Amino acid sequence: MADLSDFYDLDSTLGDDEIMIRDTVSRFVENEFTPIVAEHFEAGTFPMELVPTIADMGLLGMHLDGYGCAGASASAYGIACRELESGDSGLRSFVSVQGSLCMFPIWKYGSEEQKQQWLPRMASGEIIGCFGLTEPDHGSDPSSMTTRAVKVGNKWVLNGAKRWITNAGIAQLAIVWANTAEGFRGFLVPTDSPGFEARKIENKLSLRASITGEFYMTDVEVPESMRLPDAMSIGAPLSCLSEARYGIAYGAVGVARSCYRAALEYQLDRPQFGKPLASFQINQIKFADMLTQMTNANLQATRLGQLKEANTLRPFHISMAKRHNCRVAIDAARTARAMMGANGVSTEYSPMRHANNMESVMTYEGTEEIHGLILGQEITGIPSFK
Questions:
Q1: Segment 116-145, tens digit of pLDDT
Q2: Which of the 8 DSSP states describes residue 181?
Q3: For residue 367, which of 17, 67, 104, 330 sits 20 to 30 Å off, Cα-Cα?
Q4: Distance of alpha carbon 58 from alpha carbon 67, whole angstroms
């Protein structure tokens, strides 16, 4: 039976390089990641042994030019995120945090010396980064953060805490955002600096195949050369979030596709009352609804890629797709799990793991409500944040 998950054949618009990236990442996920993801999800670990392979595929900072990065197209980056997240949101998170949240600010706002020093080693996976914006008491309102950096001679002294930080605890470099007397600034902070302490967050029920943590800075000193010279306002970290949200919009399509395929395969193979579950009218309607919403999400993601390549992509475009596609993904995961009955709660199947993960993905990089308010401001011209 033909696979109809790309119902409008949108992948036919991809170029040769994008198809190669799609197929390479898809094979990696199927052959190397999928067989071990359930084990890591249950253990609450990330398969660090796969990082060299991920780097060898050119996925770390793949949408950046130069400094050992692949310089792939925006669509290629999105397609890679789609294939990675079809395996698990933790896998896509690792790649997008490294590339969009850690390498991108150095590439865009860093000095030439900083780019030369850090980007090649981050592209190779030698250096893992984490992005320190969210704080214990400040998530959706980053401008109110309490982390402070004080200039003392030719160095900066940082104090504060960051929480819900992907890769905290395994990162060698933290991108830290802090308030200063001159305004909002970004800093490159080696995690082995005196006064820097990272802790893993335990007992998560979501994104378990991803390392999430918090870190604390007590009089951490970095030289002026470790400040991102062109990051001069809160717009700098928000631009990084836009890069990551873009990848999430594509990744959510991968989640929906994984759940759709899992439920379809299960229902075609499982007989009840003398015929396959997939033959019942109510289940065929559910498949039709899942496929329709997944196709809508894929259309939005594809259009984002086109807008990004044309340099006409705006943050509110990304907000619509991130908000919509995450909702499609979690709905598909919940529907697919229900269509598998009791067996659907097992880690043998992907939908419930995806559903748990999407609870986090719908929250980080801006909640569903925050993105709704971004759209509301664009619609009405009236900001509701103030």
A1: 999 999 999 999 999 999 999 988 788 789
A2: T
A3: 104
A4: 12
Count of Cβ atoms closer than 10 Å to residue 58 Cβ: 18
Q: What percent of the chain has pLDDT over 70?
A: 99
Distance in angstroms (rounded) separating the CA atoms of residues 97 and 166: 7
DSSP state of 202: P
Domains of the chain, CATH where assigned: 10-123 (1.10.540.10), 129-226 (2.40.110.10), 235-380 (1.20.140.10)
**Is the model's pTM score more than 0.85?**
yes
Return the H-helix or E-strand segment holding 151: strand 148-152
Residues labelled as active-site residues: 365
Which position has the token pair 């119902």?
Answer: 7
Residue 23 CB coordination number (10 Å): 12
Burial of 383 (0-12, 13-18, 19+ CB in 10 A): exposed
**pLDDT tops 70 at residue 233:** yes
Q: What are the residues facing 187 on neighbouring strands?
A: 176, 227
pLDDT digits (tens, 9 = 90+) for 271-303: 999 999 999 999 999 999 999 999 999 999 999
Give the Cα separation of 226 and 38 in Å (integer): 39
300, two tokens: 């939005």
User: Is 53's pLDDT higher than 70?
Assistant: yes
What is the DSSP code string of 296-313? HHHHHHHHHHHHHHTT--
In a 10 Å sphere around its CB, with 0-12 CB exposed, 13-18 middle and 19+ buried, how is residue 274 labelled?
Answer: exposed
One-letter identity of residue 15: G
Please state, as a whole number, how many other Cβ atoms lie within 10 Å of the Cβ of residue 194: 8
* In 33-143, alpha helices (H): 34-43, 51-56, 74-87, 89-96, 104-109, 112-123
